[in-house]
Design brief:
By secondary structure, this protein is an all-alpha fold. Helix content is 85%, strand content 0%. The chain has helices at residues 2-20, 22-56, 59-66, 71-84, 89-101, 106-118, 124-130, 133-158. Helix 5 (89-101) runs antiparallel to helix 6 (106-118), helix 6 packs antiparallel against helix 8 (133-158) and helix 7 (124-130) crosses helix 8 (133-158). This is Putative permease. It comes from Gottschalkia purinilytica (Clostridium purinilyticum).
Length: 159
């Protein structure tokens, strides 16, 4: 239901933009479409991989590895997996919801999602190319500390 409301609001704002300046709106839509088409070859394999992974893997395995009863081991496993993986936010959030539905624990999913978004071991070479190694290391360490604090807060509220 909330998705429908967001779509309606977006269409309304697009309509207002179109009324105000047709050329800018068309240009923005073309830029958006071009960006989407450029990202599609990267996004589709990730979506397919996550979908196939979730359809193949037995929910009991998820529950055993990162379920509520997996405790600290499950949280650490989630943090490690999230730190070394690269999955965009718009895929990782639905993935987190699917994992919760399949028996994963909240602290474990919080660790996975927060490290997916906050730590970039896979993207480290690219990041250090644009910035430098020291900056990238410090940013990843601060990200890791923030993720651990976040998991502790989630865990604390669930106990």
């Amino acid at each position: 239901m909330s998705s429908i409301i967001l779509y309606i609001i977006s269409l309304f704002l697009l309509f207002l933009s179109f009324i105000k300046d047709k050329n800018k709106t068309k240009k923005a839509l073309n830029i958006s479409l071009e960006s989407f088409l450029n990202l599609l070859p990267t996004i589709l394999p990730m979506i397919m991989f996550v979908s196939i992974f979730l359809s193949i893997i037995d929910p009991n395995i998820i529950t055993k590895l990162i379920g509520t009863k997996s405790g600290l081991k499950g949280v650490l496993l989630s943090i490690v997996i999230g730190s070394i993986s690269y999955i965009p936010n718009f895929i990782s959030l639905p993935l987190g919801a699917s994992l919760l539905q399949r028996g994963a624990g909240y602290p474990q999913v919080a660790g996975l999602i927060s490290t997916l978004m906050g730590i970039g071991i896979v993207t480290f070479p690219l990041e250090s190319k644009y910035f430098d190694n020291k900056f990238s290391i410090i940013r990843n360490l601060i990200g890791l500390i923030s993720c651990i604090v976040f998991v502790i807060i989630v865990w604390w509220f669930l106990i």
